[in-house]
Amino acid sequence: MRLIGLIFGVFGISFFVLALVRFGGLSQSYKEFETPYFSVPANPTAAETGLETVSIIIPWEQSFWLQKMPHLILWTEVYRGDGETLLVKPWVDRDKALKTLEKVANPARPLLKDLLVKFPQTRFVVQCNDNVENIHRQLAQVIEEAKATERVLIQSNYNSILVSTKELLPRALYGSSPADYTRLKVFDSLWILPSVPFKGDVFFGPLIYRGRSTINSDIVIEMKRRFKKVFLGPLLSQEEVDKAIALGADGLFVEDPIMVHRPASPNL
Known about the structure:
By secondary structure, this protein is of the alpha/beta class.
């Protein structure tokens, strides 16, 4: 009996502590970060689907769509080339290791600065997973020289790149990393999601990372309580697009924008 009482006592104390942590998180207030990045109408051509407020992100090679849909956001993944250049990885090479890629710019792998200058009214997502010395300084310099600070969302699998770049470009937007996915899911499982630390401006990630889901409806609700956008992708099938829409994503990263121009399945 004493053992049972001890177990219930420990459980009661643990629940009380978790409840205090949860309440502390819920009591925090947040303000929306005003930025020109989200002042553009997200999807004015999708009135028939009810997705006018959903942003669409596509690979930079699909930039020809901008003629019909200038609201689209271009995705780029960058890496360091020869001569300290910052190259854009071709979408077809997205799964290749950085060390195996060509290091010289060409039409299939342009300089990041050239793309930013070529499309001066277009918003970008810039993913940087090349965790080499001073890559954050190089990235910040290129974005500043292209006068693109307020039209880029910077992404990385490395928190160090996000944190270091934010010190140099505080007016740019920043996404999330795999470490954020893990932290959010752990806090959610412990019932203390409102207290989770999240320093990004946008939750940006795939539906599944390394065989595990990255997000659920509770996480989406918490992000929006904090005035954070939720961008999901890459979404490689219509089923994934429908799941992201059903979750209430603010942005969809797809290979083809046509995937978004249809209503989500009513069965989701």
